[in-house]
Fold this protein.
Amino acid sequence: TQLLEQSPQFLSIQEGENLTVYCNSSSVFSSLQWYRQEPGEGPVLLVTVVTGGEVKKLKRLTFQFGDARKDSSLHITAAQPGDTGLYLCADGGSNYKLTFGKGTLLTVNP
Amino acid sequence: DAGITQSPRHKVTETGTPVTLRCHQTENHRYMYWYRQDPGHGLRLIHYSYGVKDTDKGEVSDGYSVSRSKTEDFLLTLESATSSQTSVYFCAIAGTNNEQFFGPGTRLTVL
């Protein structure tokens, strides 16, 4: 059974700071998806990475996929209060089933 | 907007009563899912469906059943609710690249 570990579990920072959160797997990812979940809402897909070493940018968010496809990171530059939420990684798996990590709960204070 | 709605959005019920949650999609997607989300456990798959009348169990299926008689509707039933089933329930559909789109969630409290 694949295990996804996300770290840190909780992160509280001030507006304008940079941060990085991590997602590590006990086995090779089929593909890696990152979601953000705001309070009281369902998760929303941010990005999918497939190729080892891949880097994708989404405004102030930078996603990296490890060369061995067993780890990924999400870096946020100049965090804003609107970035507050639960960041989840998920393995694409097979048969259209995803395996989710437990998430990193980010709070950005004004 | 993936066109997913869930009903009810909030429900309080008593132990031992049956509860049915509804997920409705307007996108004609084949795959639909039910998850529960609890502190410390993340999102856990309860059941999923890969077509009308085609369903399968997820990792936490005990105490839950599902039905899909139409492409657009996926129902989750708790035959006899227990306090351990107090949770937030999310429905999701799968896109063409295996990405998932989630509904707004149902907060269920079992007293």
In short: The interface with chain B takes residues 31, 33, 40-45, 48, 88, 90, 92-93, 96-98, 100-103 of chain A (CB under 8 Å). Chain A is about 0% helix and 55% strand. The CA atoms of residues 57 and 63 of chain A lie 6 Å apart. The mean pLDDT of chain A is 93.
